Amino acid sequence: MDKDPGSLALIESRLRVRGFSVVAATTSEQALQLLESQNFDLILIATDLELVNGEELTARIRKASFSCFVPLIMMLGEGQLAELLHGAEQGFDDFLIKPFDALTLQLRVLLNIRRAEERMQANPLTKLPGNIAIERAVKERIISGGKYSVCYLDINNFKSFNDLYGYDKGDDALRQTARIIALAARQGRPAQAAGGGLSEVAQTARKHDAGRPDRSCQPFIGHVGGDDFIVILNPEYENDFARECIREFDRIIPTYYAPEDIRRGYVQVKNRKGRNEKFPLMAISIAAVTNLNKKYSSPAEIAQVAAEVKKFLKTQSGSNYLRDRREKQIESFDEALEVLPGARELDRDKVEPLGQFLLAAGLINEYQLGEALKQHLATGKRLGQVLIAMDLVRSYDVGRMLEKKLGVPYIALAGREYPRELSRLFTVDYVKTHRVVPVEIRSGKLHIAMCDPFDLKAIDDIERTTGYRVVPGLALEEEFEDFFDKYYNRSEAV
């Protein structure tokens, strides 16, 4: 909007050539008519347009509901700057001093449109960026070609808390969760504890800071809506970030419950049928998707993979974190220990390999562990297999240790009879290839023993082909081999 036709034509041509759709007006009256009839993403207005009923055009625009939130850029001469600065509140968002070059015009227009979109889409409760900003951030990471990790965070059992304690308390819990997430993500290392001192992990990170990768990939924190959040960060910091989020969430969020609910460890909420139903206390699930092993082409593709990972996490109790690994399967349980933090009572800073865990439990001594590690390195066999073969531990002990550590139920196949009524579900080749055994169908769910209970692709395939919701359990390699030889390699095999 400008009185000067030459200036107006120049601005219009500069913006059109850069892909903007432009509508021009030379009077205040024309401008108001256009604003009433069309929707605009941004308004450029010259300071010398005439008054409208004794008011500045900017004031009229801000009073109108159809344009009150549209970004407004004032165009003025250099001599008008002081007057603008010392004048009353003008209601504009930015300004340009004439004459301005094409690049400055383009940048100011783009930045103001982007800022307005993010302001409109920001979650009103947490003030974190909303869906438009989230999608843009994910697209930028994809296009950049750099390494990134997208973490989707979901609060388990939030609805039961909200129903019991009310929306105000629910909003408080969401705001606190947003603070926990933002603090852990923005520090690029485990967040500082509320008591003032750095956690042990943070202190270790500081000591080894010199050897860490460049922090050029700044974290992005967004609020998808409700109890869903998203964080985009460098994959190098994903593990530390997830662990600190879980630590702080499990430390702080339970305090939002009444003491008696904390003591019980659950709440009772009436369901739709009016009956009391038990729900565990809130926990947090963190599903991570990274391009370290696979390239993604769209935010929707990443979101779909994350949804599948979250679906698996929902079968686990407590707060947990898991990175999608279907393009790079877990090759050993020692590696798996670093993927999924285990039971709630364990110190999440100290996720020892299997050998150290068995040592701490008193099941083996230092010498036995050393001998087992030698065989492990010499043969390439998994440490658990070596320990069992050396008769240092029972397979049952290894299974229970891994169950506690991984948070996945151990299913002992030793001495178990094959449920022949489930023989129709899997072929022999499928059992051998994926190393899975159907165990039972209970409450409409199929329980399966898996040598790799983190094989999400196999879980998805089984759910799709059988129609059952799968509950994965941990099977040990040695026990699976014996079970397979007994029931699948003989003439009477299924």
Q: Which characteristics define this entry?
A:
494 residues; alpha/beta; Rossmann fold; Alpha-Beta Plaits; 4 domains; 5-stranded mixed sheet; 3-stranded parallel sheet; 20 helices; 13 strands
Low-confidence residue ranges: 189-216, 329-352
**Tally of individual domains:** 4
Distance between the first and last residues' Cα:
80 Å
The CATH superfamily label of the largest domain reads: Reverse transcriptase/Diguanylate cyclase domain
Radius of gyration: 30 Å
Strand content: 15-25%
Structural class: alpha/beta
Shape: elongated
- Sheet having the most strands: 5 strands, mixed
User: Which CATH top level class of the largest domain fits?
Assistant: Alpha Beta
CATH architecture label name of the largest domain: 2-Layer Sandwich
What count of helical segments does DSSP give? 20
Strand order of the largest sheet: 5-6-4-9-10
Global mean pLDDT: 78
Number of strands: 13
What do these coordinates show?
- With 494 residues, the chain is α/β, with parallel strands linked by helices.
- It has four domains: 117 residues, Response regulator (Rossmann fold, 3-Layer(aba) Sandwich); 198 residues, Alpha-Beta Plaits (2-Layer Sandwich); 59 residues; 87 residues, 2-Layer Sandwich (GMP Synthetase, Chain A, domain 3), CATH 3.30.300.
- It is built from 20 helices and 13 strands.
- The strands form four sheets. A five-stranded mixed β-sheet has the order 5-6-4-9-10, with helices on both faces. It has a three-stranded parallel β-sheet with strand order 1-2-3, covered by helices on one side. It has a three-stranded mixed β-sheet with strand order 11-12-13.
- β5 and β6 form a beta hairpin.
- α7 packs across α8 and α8 runs antiparallel to α10.
- The chain is elongated, with a radius of gyration of 30 Å.
- The N and C termini lie far apart (80 Å).
